[in-house]
Each structure stands twice: as structure tokens, then as C-alpha cells.
Design goal:
Structural class: alpha/beta
Largest sheet: 7 strands, mixed
Strand content: 25-35%
Bound molecules: NADP nicotinamide-adenine-dinucleotide phosphate
Helix content: 10-25%
Distance between the termini: 16 Å
Length: 333
Amino acid sequence: MVAMNRQVLLASRPQGAVTAGNFRLVDTAVPEMGPGDVLVRNEWLSLDPYMRGRMSDAKSYVPPAQIGEVMVGQTVGEILESNDARFVPGDRVLTQLGWQLYGVAKAGEVRKIDTARAPASYYLGLLGMPGMTAWFGLFDIGQPKAGETVVVSAAAGAVGSTVGQLAKLKGCRVVGIAGGAAKCEYVARELGFDACVDYKRGTLYDDLRSACPDGVDIDFENVGGEVLDTTLRVMNRHSRIVVCGLISEYSATESYGYKRLRSVLVNRIRMQGMIVFDWKHRYGEALAGLGGYLAEGKLKYRESVTDGIDNAPKALIGLLRGENFGKQLVKLA
Ligand SMILES: NC(=O)c1ccc[n+]([C@@H]2O[C@H](COP(=O)([O-])OP(=O)(O)OC[C@H]3O[C@@H](n4cnc5c(N)ncnc54)[C@H](OP(=O)(O)O)[C@@H]3O)[C@@H](O)[C@H]2O)c1
């Protein structure tokens, strides 16, 4: 039987940037199991940019996390005990149990993962929510055709790195945008993008123009703000913008004032927001596609691992500053 649980609670809502004081670490008993429950020992916690939104009480597409409650998040872990015939101890599952070492969930709320196919942590990244986001955002909304030019921001990250590699597999010219020389070198050399532009150099417009001589047909937007406003200047007629994320704005206290929306009008750009849950009924499709490419060695994937639940707040703060390099995870066990 499990003795003690450790949890990270939301202690207060951030004003601007997230701080360590927004979290509280507690040791507590593991809840009793009821009929139909499973007890899970969490092994990996996923940290994701959306968590900044959940810490705030501004209106969004899902209700906010509550003060004093366990911070929300996906984990993968091992079933220790099961009161449901579908699971046995030792099964590995994907959960929504959040920032804690152990948790009790309804069996219907966890999903079995196949660790023979890929390491458990991949189900939080390439084969998980970020991978699904890349797949449906690019293919359903972006609709890439061979020969088109695709620009992807936050290109070294979980979503961006997958989008760019999938677009390459479709025969597109792919240009990443990332922060710093090391990330750009990784994107261009290791991930095989045609080019990568370092937005921190302060010459984004000129660099994008020279990296995209035929203009841009798809912008897979993960960052927003100045990166999006600048990309709007190089978009082609009848191009598409997949508004996947606006991370540069998540901790801002004032919204960014966009100046280039005229490009949407004159170029007849189709600009569409996406929330990956809308494709929930089709996750199997993306899992099969991404898993297939992974097995064929056609997708590269990188993780940024922080050790221990006590360090999870620091790791989220780092993620929201761009300090991660690849999918940000916390190793819990
Ligand atoms: N719509 C959906 O359903 C959905 C689902 C998943 C993710 N998303 C969005 O997709 C984007 C990428 O998510 P991810 O999980 O793949 O994260 P990630 O790219 O692995 O990590 C976030 C990255 O954003 C970049 N970034 C750019 N400008 C930044 C700024 N001003 N401040 C902080 N970071 C900045 C940083 O990379 P650089 O060092 O290169 O700047 C950072 O490493 C996020 O906007 C996220 O909200 C949306």
C-alpha cells in the first residue's frame, strides 16, 4: 500500500509571469479507492504552455484550475491497484491526474498505452497531445501541398518540431523560427528543415524573406505577437495561417497590437484557430500515422527532462520563458 502522496497545488493566480509563489507543495494521503477506480503511480508529468492559461481565471475554452487544487496536467504512470476488469496492476496508462506522485481515477478516465511501441513518455509528446495538435493542425487546417512553403514558429518545441517534419514528408519547403543559434542549428541540421530563422537576432523580416524566396503558403503559428505580425508580411495570396498558439502573449498583461491584418484581407488568407480536443474522436488516426513514421525512423524527437516533482514549478516557469529544448517533462519516478 502507498504511504504518502506529494502534490503541487495552485496557490495563487499569476499576475504577469508565473512565479514559484504561485505553487504550494504538500504531502498528503492517497485517496481511498472506490468501485471502478484505479490507483496510479505517476511516472512522467507533461508540462505544457496551456497551463499558464489554466492558472488564470480569464474566460477560455476550459474552466480554470482552482486555487488550492492539484495543478492540472497529463501524466503517464503505472496501475498499482484496479477495481475495474479492464486494468491490471502493471498496466501503463495516460491520465489527467495532474501534478502529484499518486492518484486515484475512474477507470474510464485513463487510457492504456503501448510501451512496446514507444517509450511511455512519448505518449505525452510526439504520440500524445502535442503530436495530435501537429497532425490535425497541419493536415486538416493547413492542408499542405508538395512544393508549398511552410513556416513554423517555436520550431524546436514539441508541436513545432513535429509540424515541420510532417510538412517535409509532404514535400514542402519548411522554414522554422526559433530562439537562439543552438535551437536553429538543431532544427535545420537534425530535424532536416530547409532553413531556420533566429527571431532573437532582431532581423526576422529580412531573414524570413531570404529563407522564403517564393513567399509563405502556410504559417503554423505557435508564438503570436511580433513573430506573427512579421510573418503576415511574407504570406502569399490564398495562404493559410493555423493559429495553434500565442505563447508570447500568455503572460503579457496587455494584448499585442497587431499591425499587419491588412495582409489577411488583400491576400485572401484563411486564418483559423484550433483547439486539439476538437479532433478527439480522430486521435487514433494521428496515433497510427505518427507511430508509423516513428517506426520507420522518419521522425526525430527530443525531450527536456526535469527531475522530481519539487522542481515542476521551476520547469514550467522555464518553459514559459523558452528555456526548454524539446518536449518538457518532469520525471516523477
Ligand atoms: N491549440 C492547441 O490545441 C494546442 C495544443 C498544444 C500546444 N499548443 C500551442 O503550441 C505552442 C507550442 O507548444 P509546445 O507544447 O510545443 O511547447 P514548446 O514549443 O515545446 O515550448 C514553448 C516554446 O515557445 C517558444 N517561444 C517563443 N516565443 C516565446 C516567448 N515570447 N516566450 C516564451 N516562449 C516563447 C520557446 O522556444 P524559442 O526558444 O524557440 O522561442 C519555447 O521553448 C504553444 O503556443 C502552445 O500553447 C496549442
